[in-house]
Design a protein that fits this description.
Blueprint: H1 8-15, H2 26-37, H3 40-53, H4 57-81, H5 87-95, H6 98-135, H7 157-172, H8 178-199, E1 219-222, E2 229-232, H9 234-241, H10 249-252, H11 261-291, H12 305-312, H13 316-350, H14 369-385, H15 388-416, H16 429-444, H17 449-473
Antiparallel strand pairs: 1-2
């Protein structure tokens, strides 16, 4: 397992080429985390959580937040210690070696690309419902639902189109400025604030009963809508809702730009997760208390959960505004997720683990157009076929695996390289790291058996690809030690820029 390790000294020597000023304090980090976290999860997965846990989905939000906080504290140590892009792939290469790094990098496809598909489907749900509301028509499922949806159609065309549009934007090098990102964050937060102002006063305590209709632990039952077997329970909902918090690693990866990271990183992580958890709990309470959240109910069947709730309680205008806000803000999340995917595969290709064509740059735009096209087509295909709940669960499986390896990696490096400079050290690491790893394992096995098999199948495909290509052709195998995470022509990191941050150069956007 621990063979073919990419030398940590080489990675850090490369990292020294990147001179970043430490300017971020606790408040800036907290705002960065809030902006990265709030997205599709709360706008869309509220319905999925209702179907799995009923009103007890409020507990699910807390469980997912606690596991995220533990994983984030581990992630922050490696992000500060190895301040280069490449995410858990790079950390694993320096800790476990090439094989595990390959599996992690392959699993990150599920985190980034499948997450982009899930956001695309979420965007489609809001836009289709908004069109039906404005035009007063009932759009058939044929071209707005995938064949694996509870109410199946042929293919989800709007979800595919938004994925392909984002692919095209990435190829021509369109970037989000810090100011534009701040505007999108403001739109998302304003939409949630509007929802809370109108929904909280309409809460009826009777809608919270029965509170936990499907119990705590994951179990399989027959879905009353589709008559298929589905995984339900509070823990199963937590495993799905985990998707709502993904993005917190934006705080961890900003460690090198943070003033006093040992103090401010935990504040930024816990602060952003805590704020978002409170918001999520209030939103969940508003949705549950107004129209109920029993499995198989109207909320559980909605494609635009928050807008649907507002329309049901007589605020159709507000529902339309929330849908418009989702339509404006969610494509930026798709772009960010696809950014991340291009970064991982680009670096893996330059490490020799994937064919060099994936590291090829467009002659005019200077962007990695081949890997971007492959990613975009992959995102569009899955968005066209699968519902958002299944996509979120598949994405979570890859994310949980990556965070598990990071937690274990922190403990290994504390043993094997105790004297290494660590700008941020995970507090009480002998407690935090095992709890983070255990939390990731627990949530992974609360996912549906279908999702676990999908992850296993994807991993096996990855091992086959590695055996027939990367095993023989990787740079480390050939004795060529290179670190490409900071090459000038590398694609951008999947972290939204902070307000006031320098604008990326032409090859970094």
């Amino acid at each position: 397992m621990f063979w073919r390790v990419k030398p940590l000294d080489q990675i850090l020597a490369t990292a020294e080429k990147k001179s970043l000023t430490r300017t971020l304090g606790a408040l800036q980090l907290t705002m960065l985390g809030i902006g990265a976290i709030i997205g599709t999860g709360i706008f869309v997965l509220t319905a999925e959580a209702a179907n799995k846990a009923g009103p007890a989905m409020m507990i699910s939000f807390v469980i997912a937040a606690v596991v995220c906080a533990l994983a984030a504290l581990c992630y922050a140590e490696l992000a500060a210690m190895v301040p280069v892009s490449g995410s858990a792939y790079t950390y694993s290469y320096a800790t476990f070696g090439e094989l595990i790094a390959w599996i992690v990098g392959w699993a990150l496809v599920l985190e980034y690309a499948i997450a982009a598909s899930a956001v695309s489907v979420g965007w489609s749900g809001y836009m289709v419902a908004l069109a039906e509301e404005i035009l007063k028509v009932d759009i058939p499922n044929t071209f707005v639902k995938g064949p694996f949806d509870d109410t199946p159609g042929l293919i989800n065309v709007p979800a595919m189109l938004i994925g392909l549009v984002c692919m095209a934007l990435l190829i021509i090098g369109t970037k989000e400025s810090a100011r534009f990102n701040a505007v999108l964050v403001a739109i998302k937060v304003s939409a949630l604030a509007l929802f809370l102002v109108l929904a909280i006063p309409a809460i009826n305590g009777a809608n919270f009963e029965p509170f936990m209709p499907n119990g705590f632990f994951a179990k399989e039952v027959i879905d009353p809508i589709s008559n298929n077997m589905v995984t339900v329970g509070v823990a199963a909902a937590a495993a799905s809702i985990f998707f709502a918090y993904v993005g917190f690693d934006a705080v961890s990866t900003a460690a090198e730009e943070t003033i006093n990271p040992q103090r401010n990183i935990p504040i930024g992580l816990i602060g952003s997760l805590g704020f978002c958890t409170v918001i999520y709990l209030l939103v969940a309470a508003g949705a549950i208390g107004t129209i109920g959240a029993q499995p198989g109910g109207s909320l559980a069947q909605s494609d635009d959960a928050l807008a649907f709730v507002l329309r049901e309680i007589g605020h159709g205008w507000a529902g339309d505004l929330v849908a418009i806000a989702a339509g404006l803000a969610l494509p930026s999340v798709i772009l960010m997720m696809m950014f991340g995917q291009t970064r991982i595969f680009f670096v893996m290709a330059r490490d020799g683990l994937l064919p060099g064509v994936f590291a090829k740059l467009h002659p005019k735009y200077g962007t990695p157009h081949v890997v971007t096209m492959c990613t975009g087509l992959f995102v569009a295909l899955f968005a066209g076929l699968f519902p958002v709940g299944k996509l979120a669960d598949i994405s979570n499986s890859g994310t949980l695996f990556a965070f598990f390896t990071v937690a274990i990696g922190v403990m290994i490096l504390r043993r094997t390289d105790p004297n290494r400079a660590r700008p941020f050290r995970t507090p009480f690491y002998l407690v935090i790291c095992p709890l983070a790893a255990a939390g990731c394992v627990f949530l992974f096995f609360q996912l549906s058996g279908y999702t676990e098999l999908m992850f296993l199948g994807w991993a096996l495909i990855g091992l086959v690809v590695y055996y027939f290509y990367g095993y023989r052709r990787s740079n480390v195998a050939r004795g060529v030690i290179e670190v490409h995470e900071l090459d000038a022509d590398s694609p951008p990191v999947p972290v939204p820029p902070m307000p006031g941050a320098p604008t990326p150069g032409p090859n970094q956007a």
